[in-house]
Amino acid sequence: MAGLAEGARVLDIGAGDGETLRLLQAKGLRAEGIDRIAGRGVRRGDMKRLPWPDASFDAVMAECSLSVCGDTEKALEEARRVLKPDGLLMVSDVYGKELRTAPDLSLGRPATRAGWRRIASGFRLLTWEDITPLWTEYLIHALFAGDDLGDCGFYARLRGKKTGYFLAIWKRRRRK
User: Fold this and answer.
1) What's the mean pLDDT in 17-41?
2) What's the distance, CA 122 to chain centroid?
3) How far is CA 15 from the centre of its chain?
4) For residue 137, how many other CB atoms are within 10 A of its CB?
5) 9-172, what's its fold?
6) Residues paired with residue 57 on neighbouring β-strands, in sequence order
7) For residue 140, how many C-alpha atoms fall within 13 Å in the half-sphere facing its CB?
């Protein structure tokens, strides 16, 4: 969806076991990742203090990690810092369709679509897609397969709240 050219440099923040890195690399992208716990090909570290220099990446991606990182605004500041001018931020994460507060999330704002747009203020939204049905299908398959979702009780805390899952691409805004 992002239209990244072969050889583009991509950083996965909250890369987990590195499965997405391997997929990106198989597609010809130069992918690197960081997570609290090092995985295969994943550097151990904190997405709120990225060890790469400014303007290092063509794209930064985060799969269901920004909402639980502890300080989403700081993580987005760091993502913006390591992105090249006009770099892309690719996010898939949870949002509250009617969730006015986000006590179980790291957003510091309502976890609605509008809340996500405000928190990503250093970026211009290019696309937002509600992929709740796909997310639900994935979770059901993962549960039946006995997969470790590594969610630290995240989904249990959201039980009963009207949540969905989105995929969005933002473009880094140039500083004035």
Assistant:
1) 93
2) 15
3) 9
4) 11
5) Rossmann fold (3.40.50)
6) 83
7) 6
